[in-house]
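Issue: ligand-bound run for magnesium ion - logging full I/O for the record.

Environment: standard queue, default settings, no custom constraints.

Inputs:
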Amino acid sequence: DAKRDGRGVARLFDEGMDENIRLRRAIEGGLSLAIEKGELSLVYQPIIAREGLEVVGFEALLRWNTEDHGPISPAVFIPIAEESNLIHELGDWVLDQSLAVLQGWPGQYISVNFSPRQFRRHNFVGRIMESVQRAGIEPNRVQIEITETAIFDDADRAADTLYKLRQMGFRIALDDFGTGYSSLYNIRKFALDCLKIDRSFIDGMGRERESAAIVQSIVHLGRSLGLGVIAEGVETEAQVQALRVAGCSHLQGYYFSRPVALEIANEIAERRYLIDETVVEDESVAK
Ligand code: C2E
Ligand code: MG
Ligand code: MG
Ligand code: MG
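Outputs:
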């Protein structure tokens, strides 16, 4: 009967929850050992300037290949790490690796993702400066990617942090722009270098008028504030053309290159010109 069904559903739901919690704990446990087990690596995706179509930088993206269960997506494990101090351990590792690879590249910058908790960490500015100095890297070769969530919760403190970072010469990019709840008005308060248009809008461009309109307004907004605008998730020739016409300053996405291992990134960096063949990170998802 209905009552019994209700209980059954409730029990199933509980079991689902338990399963979920077990999974999270397993991921947490695995992650805490991932560095010493050598299971982490970075892949690098080029960022291309609209003018001249040169590779001006690379975004570093974290990969976790577990011994027991194969690769786990950062979209899964970063939010779990973000709930504890594990994110700091991972973040420090990512930054040190990123700075080390920069030494091998002629003139590009490295763009590093920082989660909200990393950004709000005590003495974030001092720590990042220390790492960069230790590595002997100019801050202008490091782009800090943060999301709207990181800066709009405590806007005054965030504005202060960004101002200091920018004074020191770091580049600041606002990632996944358009998906958060930033008021356009408040954007002015923050010392930024560029906006990264979220790939959901790029994806919708050819299909719905709204996406193209949103892309166009973000480009206008960026331009009127003197900011660069990077389109992420560019996959097709048609998108490239539309984004160039819209006046987007930088492009990034599978059309140019998937995120690739260091040896391939080194080749791309040295060539310093647009590659037109798609370099494949994972054969199983190749087109
Ligand atoms: P994100 O920073 O917005 O990175 C862009 C994501 O889109 C990456 O996924 C990238 O592989 C993917 N992508 C790039 N071009 C295309 C394209 O043309 N088409 C499609 N469909 N996807 C494309 P990934 O590497 O799985 O990373 C997911 C998210 O995990 C990142 O989003 C970022 O928020 C987070 N993340 C990755 N590495 C790190 C890290 O080192 N630290 C922190 N805090 N977060 C990271
Ligand atoms: Mg990013
Ligand atoms: Mg992004
Ligand atoms: Mg994104």
